[in-house]
């Protein structure tokens, strides 16, 4: 791998403030780097048929399995919600919306929400509290890394996707419907073919996310824009 200026502890140049200006021109812009730089979410209302085939989904899951995973715990799994199961899911959404105090008309809109998008999955994390050497936050990291690889693989295949949770994912009715012991329903992932062109949002300042260690100094990085 080629060493970038930041890795050699040199300051970024002025061009680092420009969108994309921080990318080391010495790094070959392979297709995979372009793909990673372009990944972005596409909302369910902008997704249509065709969705990924089972084989394509399996490939995306195989990519997700490349996420770093301390202890090889595989602290996640995905659940495919079939077309014929959307109505059942919609019923649950409505019951939860009513339980959470929304009025009947507002709650009824949840029926349509469960139908959106050609492919719908639930992302489940299985976080174990009693694993030596692998604290829970490391398992969450791994589950999130896997989700990101899954989304990125689908993006690389030309599909759009979006991860959405909302308060309902933490409701006992949905937790019971999807989860076993030590499991959490993290979110739903909708996947399909984008109906409009879109791009990644925002331009992050890389210096906020990568900087030299300054022991004892107040944090100089990780400051959200
Ligand atoms: C686990 C998880 C749950 C999320 N839940 C929601 C949500 O309920 N509502 C929402 O607007 N965005 C949610 N997001 C964020 C979107 O999926 C998306 O990442 C965000 O809009 C930024 O867009 P981008 O992926 O194109 O950068 C969630 C993301 C993750 C990882």
Q: What's the CATH architecture of the domain at 44-81 and 117-196? A: 3-Layer(aba) Sandwich
Specify the biggest β-sheet: 5 strands, antiparallel
Bound molecules: flavin mononucleotide
Topology, number of strands: 5
Strand content: 5-15%
- Per CATH, the superfamily of the domain at 44-81 and 117-196 is NADH Oxidase
Helix vs. strand class: alpha+beta
Order of helices and strands: HEHEHHEHEHE
> Termini distance?
30 Å
Mean pLDDT: 88
CATH level-1 class of the domain at 44-81 and 117-196: Alpha Beta
Shape: globular
Low-confidence stretches: 1-19
Radius of gyration: 20 Å
Cofactor: FMN
Enzyme class: oxidoreductase
EC number: 1.-.-.-
Binding site for FMN: 39-41, 66, 70
List keywords for this structure.
5 strands, 6 helices, five-stranded antiparallel sheet, NADH Oxidase, disordered N terminus, alpha+beta, 225 residues, binds flavin mononucleotide
Walk me through what this model shows:
The chain is α+β, with helices and mostly antiparallel strands. The protein has a domain at 44-81 and 117-196: NADH Oxidase (3-Layer(aba) Sandwich), CATH 3.40.109. Helices cover 32% and strands 15% of the residues. The chain contains six helices and five strands; from the N terminus they run αβαβααβαβαβ. Strands 1, 2, 3, 4 and 5 form a five-stranded antiparallel sheet that branches. Helix 3 packs antiparallel against helix 4 (104-113). It is globular and about 55 Å long. 23% of the residues are buried.
């Amino acid at each position: 791998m080629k060493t970038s200026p930041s890795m050699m502890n040199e300051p970024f140049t002025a061009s680092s403030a420009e969108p994309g200006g921080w990318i080391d021109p010495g790094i070959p812009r392979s297709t995979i780097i372009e793909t990673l730089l372009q990944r972005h979410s596409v909302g369910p209302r902008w997704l249509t048929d065709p969705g990924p085939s089972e084989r394509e989904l399996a490939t995306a899951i195989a990519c997700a399995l490349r996420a770093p995973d301390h202890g090889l715990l595989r602290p996640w799994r995905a659940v495919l919600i079939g077309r014929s199961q959307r109505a059942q899911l919609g019923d649950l959404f409505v019951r939860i919306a009513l339980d959470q105090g929304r009025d009947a008309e507002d709650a009824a809109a949840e029926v349509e929400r469960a139908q959106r998008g050609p492919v719908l999955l639930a992302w489940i994390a299985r976080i174990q509290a009693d694993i030596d050497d692998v604290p829970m936050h490391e398992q969450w990291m791994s589950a999130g890394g896997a989700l990101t690889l899954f989304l990125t693989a689908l993006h690389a295949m030309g599909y759009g996707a979006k991860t959405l949770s909302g308060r309902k994912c933490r409701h006992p009715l949905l937790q019971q419907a999807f989860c076993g012991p030590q499991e959490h329903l993290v979110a739903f992932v909708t996947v399909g073919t984008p109906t409009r062109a879109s791009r990644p949002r925002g331009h992050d300042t890389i210096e906020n996310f990568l900087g030299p260690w300054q022991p004892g100094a107040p944090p100089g990085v990780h400051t959200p824009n």
